[in-house]
Write a structure and sequence with these properties.
Blueprint lengths: L21 H4 L3 E7 L2 E3 L19 E3 L2 E5 L5 E6 L5 E4 H5 L4 E8 L15 E10 H8 L7 E6 L3 E3 L2 E3 L3 E5 H4 L5 E6 L2 E2 L9 E3 L12 E7 L6 H4 L3 E3 L9 E3 L6 E6 L4 E4 L2 E9 L4 E7 L6 E3 L1 E2 L8 E8 L3 E11 L15 E8 L7
Parallel strand pairs: 5-16, 20-27
Antiparallel strand pairs: 1-4, 2-3, 5-6, 7-8, 8-13, 9-12, 9-16, 10-11, 13-14, 13-15, 17-18, 19-21, 21-25, 22-23, 22-26, 24-25, 26-27
């Protein structure tokens, strides 16, 4: 698909066309603390009950250590295949038109393991920032530009591979979509160091690996970025390739769902029960089916509309006689893509419950 930009008609007196060297860009990084790989797992699915996930319940994944950024020295450089390269300071960025997007945020999982284990690193948050498309219009990409490379101020070693920055890329078609932000707030608060502050890229509908933290550079190019996080890590075998050979980048989020009520191993007073959960995908989820055993006897739940790129609440009432049950949720997206039963990182979520006739004080 050919993407065309409309030439901006307004002047942007806040920007600077004095382009910094790489050394000048990286003067804003006062160090890496803590260094090395870090992960903070989210709570179990049944504890992710609120529509907006608080920061302290949202997973954290840091590959090479967290950059300590001096905001007074921070610059964002937009360059490459553009007519008007420029830089922004943080105060200049904050004066540009701002947008808030509600979006699920999901970690793909380990890039060094097969994508078969469900990790449930998921939350739903509100990002505030400047639309990437606004900045690209200011720079005016050349016709041959096809990708937007993003670079962070972090550096170090991950899984034996050393890099002087975390570098990713976006196809220009996705970069121009209105949901993609250069963000500086999470849930109404400035981004912390651990969240990639002061500024990070946010790409709703795509996995978190594409959302470069401690952002310092956006460069338009006609080929994919060559750093290890695009060439070595975060590529997977395309499950739609019957030959099992073709690889694809880890970009868009696959259809997924999970059960948040009841909790695993719950003992519930029957016969009438309410089952609830979340469903999400790059595109809206239109159906969630609930199975009550491994014989795949599925019933359809009610699915709430999506807000921006948020996860979607689903709910179903069931009448179950006393006994032991395995509940399973299975979502389907607007284009008909359904969660696999097994073999993929987004396979159906399941949990066991017991239904009894009467449990005093039971739910």
């Amino acid at each position: 698909m050919e993407v065309r930009l409309v030439e901006p008609r307004v002047e942007n007196p806040v920007v600077s066309i004095s382009l910094p060297t790489d050394e000048r860009l990286r003067e804003a990084c006062n160090g890496i603390d803590p260094g090395g790989f870090h992960i903070r797992h989210p709570p179990a699915p049944h504890l992710l009950s609120s529509f907006i996930t608080p920061d302290d319940q949202l997973f954290q994944t840091i590959h090479m250590g967290a950059a300590v950024v001096d905001t007074s020295k921070w610059l964002l450089l937009i360059d490459g295949l553009v007519k008007r390269p420029f830089t922004l300071t943080l105060p200049q960025l904050l004066r540009l038109p701002q947008t808030t997007i509600t979006a699920f945020h999901e970690c793909y999982g380990s890039p060094i393991k097969p994508p078969t284990d469900a990790v449930w690193r998921i939350g739903n948050v509100q990002w505030t920032g400047v639309r990437l498309s606004h900045l690209l219009n200011m720079a005016s990409p050349l016709p041959e530009a096809r990708y937007v490379w993003s670079e962070g101020l972090d550096k170090g070693t991950f899984h034996g591979i050393t890099s002087d920055c975390y570098q990713k890329d976006l196809p220009l078609e996705k970069a121009l979509r209105p949901e993609v932000l250069v963000a500086f707030e999470l849930n109404g608060q400035p981004l912390s160091k651990e969240r990639g502050g002061p500024v990070r890229l946010v790409v709703p509908g795509w996995f978190g690996t594409n959302m470069t933290k401690w952002l310092c550079r956006l460069s338009l190019q006609d080929w994919r970025a060559s750093g290890p996080y695009t060439t070595i890590f975060y590529n997977e075998l395309d499950p739609t390739d019957r030959a099992g050979k073709r690889k694809r980048p880890v970009w868009s989020v696959e259809t997924n769902s999970m059960i948040v009520r009841p909790s695993p191993e719950a003992v519930l007073r029957g016969p009438d029960l309410t089952i609830e959960g979340w469903a999400w995908s790059e595109e809206p989820v239109t159906q969630v089916l609930l199975g009550t055993d491994h014989k795949a006897s599925w019933v359809e739940a009610e699915v709430m509309p999506r807000e921006d790129f948020s996860w979607q609440k689903w709910r179903i009432g069931l009448t179950l006689s006393p006994g032991d049950y395995t509940l399973m949720s299975r979502a389907k997206s607007a284009s008909g893509v359904q969660q696999p039963l097994s073999g993929r990182r987004n396979h159906v979520h399941s949990l066991k419950i017991k239904v009894v006739e009467d449990v005093p004080g039971g739910s």
